[in-house]
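YM 10:42: MerR family transcriptional regulator sequence, as discussed on the call
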Amino acid sequence: MVVPVSEDLLPIGRFARLCRLTVKQLRHYDDLGLLVPAWTDPASGYRYYRPSQARDALLIGLLRAMDVPLSSVARVMSGDGPDALREARDRIEADVARRRRGLRLLDRVVAGGLPENEVSIVREPPRRVFMAREAATPETIPDATGACVGRLLSRMSPDVLMIGLFPLDMAEEFDVRVAVEAADGDDLLPGGTFASSVHVGPYEEIALTVHGVLAWFGDYGHTPAGPVREVYLNDPAVTPPERLETRVQIRVEDPQ
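YM 10:58: structure's back
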């Protein structure tokens, strides 16, 4: 049914100014079904909105300004507001934490450049292990590692070796693995020749040592082979973060 334009309807340009949005944004939200115009002229395709729709439009604009993803905004508009907003808040909080870790790393690099780690060549034997795996992205590595550790808690003790295994090449999604050595373990961790360096400091700064070891590969013309191994040498529950020691190991594919 054709609805005539009336004083109760605002053309898209006026409605955009009222809601502090652009015409392009309003068209996009219409295409997504987030904010459908009150009436669209069938001849021209021009969109018109009721003033009462301004509250919804302002809410959408506010949420997008806070980096709430469109999928969460859609849930809010469909009535699933509290859960969707809590989930969006958790994602933003995790992103803020990741950026703070990045700032701390950047401060280290600004202060001293890429670390020149003392690297040694070591021969590692094969090890029987129990292993836990968890899907991860570059942003969720800490959570995935924690989940793996949680599944292995019953097999841990102060004298048990725990090893984190991380891909050398970061894809969009990959598996994080954590292994604990055990004579009756159902997985075999291969041995080989490794470039090894000890990282001292918080786990979140281990990337600096990993990059330092990779720089060593470049300096000496060796070829690295993944995964990157992190051998945790002390207990984070009783060791201050600045005193944690982690042995970073990367297998040398063509030892000389």
